[in-house]
Amino acid sequence: MGAAYAKCYDPTGARYGIPTYPWKYAPDGLATRRQLRARGLRPGGQPIAAQLMLRHRGRKSGALVAYLYRVDLALPVRPMTSRKWGALALAMLARRTCPACCLDVGYCIPRSHGICGACITAQEQSAA
User: Fold this and answer.
1) Distance, CA of 53 to CA of 48 (rounded, Å)
2) Pick from 63, 88, 72: which is nearest to 7 by CA?
3) Residue 9: is it exposed, middle or buried by C-beta count within 10 angstroms (0-12/13-18/19+)?
4) Distance (Å, rounded) from C-alpha 116 to C-alpha 66?
5) pLDDT tens digits for 56-98?
6) Which residues in 41-53 are b (16+ Cβ under 10 Å) and which e?
7) d(CA 42, CA 104)
8) Sequence-separated (6 or more) residues with CB below 8 Å from residue 42
9) With 0-12 CB in 10 A as exposed, 13-18 as middle and 19+ as buried, what is 59?
10) Are the C-beta atoms of residues 50 and 40 closer than 8 Å to each other?
11) pTM for this entry
12) E strands of 7-73, at which residues?
């Protein structure tokens, strides 16, 4: 391992308080939140088991950190209820509805303009 990897390698947790591994060198049985989600799992309230660290000059802290959880203690993802599905559908409808013409335009309206493409064109033509 190189010098940057050696500074991030602390399997006992003496330096950082929890076991720390270099990026892409995590032991089997540990996964990040995204990796758990891809498997249909969630941390389920368990404590952080370890962390991945990548030295990064552009960050204020000098490192990127990703927390790892034990896969054997992870729980299945809770299914969405009908109320959650309904709330999500209403939120998406609000994002697709133009505030100027009050029509569902079929796509999410860009926040940079705040109105649909037809209303933008109409405003440009009336301004010219």
Assistant:
1) 14
2) 63
3) middle
4) 39
5) 666 666 678 899 999 999 999 999 999 999 999 999 999 999 9
6) bbbeeeeebbbbb
7) 35
8) 33, 36, 74, 75, 76, 77, 78
9) exposed
10) no
11) 0.68
12) 20-22, 30-31, 41-42, 50-55, 63-70
